[in-house]
Amino acid sequence: SPLHDFIHGLPKCEHHVHLEGCLDPELIFHLAARNGITLPSPTENPAYASIAALTTRYEHFTSLDDFLAFYFEGMAVLRTEADFSDLAWSYFQKAHADGVHHAEVFFDPQVHLSRGVSYKTVVDGFAAGCKRAEIELGLSTRLIMCFVRHLPVSSAQEVYEEFLSHEHFESELVHGLGWSSSEVGPPKDMFREIYASASAKGIPLTAHAGEEGDPTYISTALELGATRIDHGIRLIEDPELMKRVANEGILLTVCPLSNVRLRCVPSVEHVPVRKFLEAGVKFSINSDDPAYFGGYILDNYCAVQEAHQLSVMEWRIIAENSVQESWIPDERKAELL
Ligand code: HPA
Ligand code: ZN
């Protein structure tokens, strides 16, 4: 596309990427061998026959939960602090090559804790990757801890306490909180008490909502104190709520290739970027789980351009909103604009 160089050169901020979602099939097989972890046997699940078979299986997810089963199985190969730091570093190198200057990255500690890996191992490893990206690549970084909706609230409460007591929270590297995993099924407001506590402490809050779930998942997240919504594409089904989101300047972190791979939309043409632009709804464009969905952030930007043919002005608005709604001090925003 004629705007490709311009889009590559835009100063990008990524707000929606799961570090565990950057674990590609090659690294899954490599770390399984290195750490002596048995992957599902190919007789049980033929997807695990080879790196190629697993890669191909990822092209055929049928839903969010179908993807999540592979995502949680894959991350079981992560054991040591080095595994976590190497994974983060591999993401930051790709992001840097795509023109990302600031990245706010998710991680899912409950799932690691449930298989015997400590919060400290996970966070210290990811934090080391962040520090290296800041020093060697000039990126600014933030970690956002996600609660997962498929495990009991008591498990979320445990990691919330670890989050509050860990030195990286004090240092503001582990900066915000989110929730993710299965959307439809568990109670919409299952993290009400935790979010009330975190809100009172002034911790920035986001939430995965309106990906598979209807707009009431979005309004519930806002009611609980989220000031940002991850995905949020089903917002277009509620014009009143859409007005409110626009008026309050709530950022949606949209992930076009993810939406297609998880069959939330039939193609990128159906990701409502133009409706959001027309309604004055702020959004950023992100990769979500790039190792599973066939592309990093620049692939997502380019897919939006192919499908929607945005103007230079529209791209500038998207880039500027991405900077303005990042969870960074004003001085850093000024450097990025
Ligand atoms: N939705 C919900 N949970 C997730 C996702 C997602 O797109 N990616 C990783 N965990
Ligand atoms: Zn996500």
UniProtKB/TrEMBL annotation:
Localization, per the record, is: Cytoplasm; Nucleus
Q: Name one Pfam family in it.
A: A_deaminase
Origin organism is Penicillium subrubescens
UniProt-annotated site: Important for catalytic activity, residues: 231
**What protein am I looking at?**
Adenine deaminase
Ordered alphabetically, the record's keywords are: Cytoplasm, Hydrolase, Metal-binding, Nucleotide metabolism, Nucleus, Zinc
Per the entry, the cofactor note is:
Binds 1 zinc ion per subunit.
Per the record, what are the reactions this protein catalyses?
adenine + H2O + H(+) = hypoxanthine + NH4(+)
- Catalytic residues, per the record, are 211 (proton donor)
